[in-house]
User: Fold these one by one.
Assistant:
Number 1:
Amino acid sequence: MRFLHTSDWHLGRSFHRVSLLDAQAAFLDHLVAAAREHAVDAVLVAGDVYDRAVPPLAAVELFDRALHWLADAGVPTVMISGNHDSARRLGVGAGLIGRAGIHLRTDPAACGTPVLLSDAHGEVACYGLPYLEPSLVRDDFKVAAARHEAVLGAAMDRVRADLAARPAGTRSVVLAHAFVTGGTPSDSERDIAVGGVASVPAAVFDGVDYVALGHLHGAQRLTDRVRYSGSPLAYSFSEARQRKSTWLVDLGPEGAVEAERLDCPVPRRLARIRGTLEDLLADPALTPHEDAWVEATLTDAARPKEPMARLAARFPHTLSLVFEPERAEETGAASYARRLRGRTDQQIAEDFVAHVRPGSGADEAERAVLRDAFEDVRVDGAVREVAL
């Protein structure tokens, strides 16, 4: 049986205030085309369909279009809710939508009830485990601790119990949305540690043939049977080096797994550049980045004038500007106390001015203001001491 494994669409999300709705629509069109081209038996969507619990109307409309495209293509789809989704909202109409071959799995209580697919070699049981917030489901799963490993382990116990009652040779697939130990995160994933220790071991999924994971935005293989598809688009500059793709998975008659990556369309490349403003504006090696979305880190000792406007003249798609001045002054190795030792209050204050206004220390008039301020403090302190 052949699957197309994807996740983390985050419909409605923008990239540094740039709308990605057209790029998300292009991906979904690509997904349906790939499903047809490769004659897949099912599409697996492992959570975070939307970017937030109450998505904007345009994102809902795009999701509706995607459901119609998949149903029209005749490709069964199994989809779970992620930590960004509202499980109840996403699951509205699931029974009716299921009749069109789109199987939404958003109810934790249904973890042990699979979507049954079949091919020439028999049935494949697809279990959808929506994102399980430990504090909300611990009682339902009867676990002692509100921890991700505990509730996910209890859900998998239900999966294994159901699978054991099925005919011998029934193959199995699990969709889950979780942070599995060994995975590499990026900056754009929402932290799920609030519900206990965030990560769970891959061994929690033992006993099934393939695990289609969502949550981490980089495509990665934890084992041959446990994989993240990653997000189809980059949602932070930390993903600049990631290859965005889906997994095309072949599940053999005995449960053997073969998988290859299918590249997703890229709306615009990401580039992270670093240096002084003048160097960035003049360096010919940066020419390939002139049409990319750019994050520029400026290392000038003093903040240059109108840096964003000047960068945009060469890199018109600059979206993020970071200042990390490189100075020759003593840094981290020396303790704060050592740096202050032997210095007067006046000198410390002047050093602070030079630090927050790199390249331009206090002038004579400002030094005079500081001297007067410290003198007033000393006089006031002396008066208070006498009064006491």
Note: The chain has three domains: 2-263, 269-326, 335-388.
Number 2:
Amino acid sequence: MAISDREWVSRHVALASSAISRADVEVIGRLVADTIAIATYARRHRLGGTAFDETGLAMGSHDSAVWGSALTASPLDAAFLNGSAAEALDFQEVLLNGRNNGHAAVVIVPAVFALAQQRGATSEEVLQALRVGFAANIGLGEALGRAHRTDGRGFRTTSLTATPAAALACAVLISRDVDIALAATGIAACTIPAGLLTAMSPSEGSYSVDKDLSVGFSARHTLHAALLAEGGAKGPSAPITGDKGWLASFASGSADRTYLEIAPESRELSAYSVKLFPANFGCQAAIRSAMELGKEIGAERIERLEVKVKTSSSQSLSTRAIGNHLAARFSLPFAVASACVRERSVLADFEGSAVEDASVLSFMDRVTVEGDAALEARHLDLGIFPARVFAWGAEGLLGEKSYDGPFDGMSDSEAHAVFAAKVEALVDDSVARDLLAYASEPAAPEALRRLF
């Protein structure tokens, strides 16, 4: 007999009382530090949705921090503001999973932290709630599949999976009551603000701030659902798997309920990867390859840079109309050209006049992007985003690089070092110290207090 929604929720509530592996603790710490650092940078530079912070929102002397600002807001408003800011750079984490990809920290962390700060939650309670949310998001993503964004559909995975997962996390932070947790999950799933992908469609090309606002609305919605459940509001008994429920409405034929039967404690949070470069995750391996080829060969010698990625990325990241920073971050031709010409890939390369740099835009004409069925198959099997890049010149093939992702082949110490450098590039020294201290030991009460 298939697992019931109540049993699925109950297992995640029980997860919050079990020991957390050191590996999962490290992942959670890194995801929190990454999310807050990105949001802080975006707000301080008024990028994306943060340019509209004051629209209909009250900030001043309230309960929860607004990252990147000295102001505070109500928990619901803080969740919205911090979620929107965390999405603004498209520099956030990605779930690497063959059944589904998407972001989760940008919804889960703002919602849980806004509630935790208001309630004075302990570092252990916050850690356990985050663990529940990230584990639940994997199960929901796998059960959903990816047909919600095929054949012309454009539902955002982040909106669909992270929202009920984050509501469950917030409910666990409030109480270990299964009824409250089921109600929170159900209210969130059945009243979901299902964001759409049209802004990022190459054929539409608006690359507008609704991308950021969608995540903010999801974070706020998540927390509101948990608070309503705490107040006694009820949802349906089978909001995820029931008739006309979440799976039936959004899966579009790719649902597989058996993934909900996997024990949440067996979910490996190492499936979440942060980004090394400030662009869409589908660009990451290609950026690293192009950057290294630029350093080794020199862009001036390269007549054609051939980029092979999974087929779906070659289509969704194909835009060559670079109208703003978001279009640049979602353009394989731009991201690769920039990395090769500049021999780097940093925040400044995707901002202001840098997206109009003639040397980069002209080099884009030398960049070809090809979808590779074999790389698509590896993605579906392993969840990774591989790339192969070939540099051609007058004398033939000058060099090639191949990576499965931005951290491919790095040792743990190297990966930690480049992550620390990322955080330090996003925020000032004192904030970086606090974030990296939390990343290394998120269970430490003092580390959490400094973030609050």
Note: The radius of gyration is 21 Å.
Number 3:
Amino acid sequence: MVNLIDAVQPNVIKTQLSDIYGFSEQLAQIPDLVSLTIGEPDFPTPEHVKKAGMAAIAADESHYTATWGRIGTRTAAANYLKQRYDVDYDPATQVVITNGVTEAMYATLATFVGKGDEVLLPTPAFPVYDSLVELNGGKLVEIDTQPDEFLLTPERLRATLQEHPHAKVLIVNFPSNPTGRSYSADQIQALADVIAETNLVVVSDEIYSELTYTGRHVSLAKYLPDQTILFNGLSKSHAMTGWRIGVAAGPAPVMTEIAKVRELMSTSVMTAAQVAAEEAFGNGMDDAAPMRAEYERRRDYVYNEFTRLGFACEKPQGAFYLFAKIPERFHLNSAAFCQDVAKTVKVGMIPGSSFGAGGEGYVRISYATSMSNLEEAIRRLQIYSDEH
């Protein structure tokens, strides 16, 4: 009898999916759990965007679009990136609409990464990057940023490049999932100065750019346009995770190659979602502002409360995550701690070990939930703390 598993490619067998969703689903079986696990906006998609999508469906806009995306959507996305982050892209040749940033990441890494290619990744980091590098046969080189307050410094990047002079790709994500940390214009410039001395392909995932609390987000692509593939989209800024709208932008010759891979994955992105995205990019420039203000209020609350409970943490500068160090008095690793807290006081958190080097000993909590949920979680964590 044929065993089909024997025919599966080794890279697929070796690839480990993120345990974030699996862990979250496991905890979700606990009755009355206050879940701070999944990073998804708890706001509705803006009304004018929903109406645009519904109008497109009503008008029978239900057919294939250009594989790169509708030109109207690409133009709106390019204008949005220009106005918000001062980066210039030709919508006809430099912008591709994707099914979320995950598809953009897969298409890009499949374009650049082959067997044995080294990919640099500052960690802790969202584990999908690791999985996609492995799936494409690359070799992940983790850069532990924990000693540097969870920021990649020029000095640490230089040291890593000395140890790995043939590294091909650098992946950066800021504001960061899971730490919420981000970079000032001066810090981005300093990193760009180091990168400019290399042949690195920079993949810059800036999906949380509109959820920045310390002034306007500064894109790495502004300083290294010819060396950077920029990712952005609407999932976080416009609470559109289920609409699956991502944007990949970069030098024209390279985007042609990335677009080939993306076309083979799903032909095109849902037409009505692209129409809604055009509305969001074009007339929803400031839609994120009220959500960002509420996230910042929650950020301040959870940061102060976790600090009071003895969890050391760097104050997030963006996104909607807090990455907190587990007090030593609990004597548990991150996975055991999260399971014990979920079991005893019914608060769900993600173990820091899920995010690579520098993550063990920490927990990630998402404050993309109501203030009442956050207050109840803190009340329960206080009980847990008092009992230990």
Note: DSSP finds 13 helices and 13 strands in the chain.
Number 4:
Amino acid sequence: MPNLSSDLQPIINKRLNNLSASKIRAFDQKVSGIPNIIKLTIGEPDLATPEHVKEAAIRDINADDSHYAPQAGKPQLLKAISRYLDRSLNVHYDPDSEICVTVGATGALNDVFMTLLNPGDKIIVPTPVWALYFQLIKMTGATPIQVDTKKDGFILTPKHLRHVLNGRGKGAKAIILTDPSNPTGRVYPAETLKELAKIIKEYKIYSITDEIYAELVYGGAEHHSLSQYIPDHNILISGLSKAYAMTGWRLGYIAGPKQIMQSIRKINAFLVTSVTDNVQMAAVEALNNGQNDPKEAREIYEKRLKFMQTGLEKLGFEMATPHGAFYIFAKIPEKYGTDDEQFAFELAQKAKVGLTPGRYFGKGGEGYVRISYASSTAQLEESLKRISNFVNEL
């Protein structure tokens, strides 16, 4: 096996030296070797991709659809995305110029950050948040300005945003919001988004909304988007991974004003050429004929949320009420102070339940753990018993 020449080893993109591998994945791997462990660490739906969606992909393969797709996406899929956004948000995007199909929402984030951000730029990132944002932003040479939202129930308030834009975030080019939130499950009310939209417009910055969990909202809450209020400023990112249990299919998309989408489409073409043909046709089937699929998933997840939330609260765990995604962000027992890593590791070792330390999601996450209820009901019932025994022994 060859070793890299010692003369070449220092020759690398220096920005990579400032990046860290995913701590979420590292912790998941660390506890995976514990016998009989139940892992509630990763946001991976246990549900299967709907049959009609799988059959659409198989039909496309059998039809020998195996050539390069259009770089921004197949026309059928671009139209399906446009119709979906029209009916779900009442916002129209031209399929020919304002939408781009990507390799998952992660690919979409890369496209947008690479298009917008230059070295030295600032982008505001309310936290706790999915930590990959930080690394993708740093890869461009830009700086993520973390804004701790813990004191406001994990919702960025308009007052807080204005304060940041006048202070350490002064001159920021953009802000990114995840709604519904990973890791907190919080959903932004329409009135809050309207007020945030006014400030974003006033300060003449981009907004980027990661709406991958848009279909998974519960408890009477409703999903809204900044695209409904400032479509001229907002770049919307979403995909089919969560609502349609298609994480491994890697299908995401971006929608935004034509002028910026020209550049985003260009970047996407440079990075991936095009998205896999049969995956795109499966997505067409999901969006055109699978409108009930997310509803069925929602009903399952909502029952699991109620079960886990009720059980955890009886054990003394505190949380800002989650209304979306499939996560609970719970405050750890007082004995551990804010050492969520120690708590999570001891819970994994002694109770054989894997939860993700909250500090991995940025400022405001210390002292919390993220619990994914995207696992089977049987696993959740057993995990709650184990957590209960562990906490009662403290």
Note: The radius of gyration is 21 Å.
